[in-house]
Design goal:
Oligomer: single chain
Radius of gyration: 17 Å
Shape: globular
CATH class of the largest domain: Alpha Beta
Mean pLDDT: 95
Structural class: alpha/beta
Largest sheet: 7 strands, mixed
Distance between the termini: 34 Å
Strand order of the largest sheet: 3-2-1-4-7-13-14
Number of domains: 2
Order of helices and strands: HEHEHEEEEHEEHEEHEEEE
Low-confidence stretches: none
Strand content: 15-25%
Helix content: 25-40%
CATH topology of the largest domain: Rossmann fold
Amino acid sequence: MNVAKRAVARIATRMVLSRNYKIVGVGTGSTVGFFMEELASRPEAKRLQYVASSIDTARKLASRGLLVLDPGTVDQIDVYVDGADEVDPKGNMIKGRGAAHLSEKILAYRSRFNIFIVDESKLVDKLGEKRPVPVSLVPSALSLVVNALKMLGYDVELRGGNCKDGPCIDDHGFVVLDVWTGPMDDPERVDRLLQSVPGVVETGLFIGLTDLVLVGRSDGGVQEIRTHRTRGLHL
């Protein structure tokens, strides 16, 4: 699996450094970790500025000598690189195993070009086949949201925290649920349905935000999937 992740990270790094980009958005996750390693190995990467989707990513970029900007001070992002948990044939995705999906969606929406790097195990025919949809919500609405989602027919799990007792809290202070939808025929409809519940802030369904998916294979090969992006600030 690491062979595939390293392969897509290497290609993504070449793409980012070969173009006239100035500000690079960076996501969160294990595959992105390989991308950051590749960046750190290239001296020319230090001429760029970076915007991170999480505290963890910001720390890792800074520790590699890369300049990290406050997301709130950046008007535009030239390119955004991130991973995904599931990708369907249209380039729609489930993201958020690192509980950074809110910030990731903000950066992807603001970016001029989005590159998502995955290994072949992340490809599915329909979103929801393997993974739940992460949902961020206001803590005071926890009971309301859980009950409402169960009434809609979904299995709901309160994600646990890794470093403390109690629920997982994201970088913005929101509680994270994992919602098992099963395979989705219409992920856009499911996204609207989830976000219609009062107290829900954001979901890990990324619809229409993909420009390019790089898929790493176990033999080290990389497949490019170009998609029709329909959402974003710069369309």
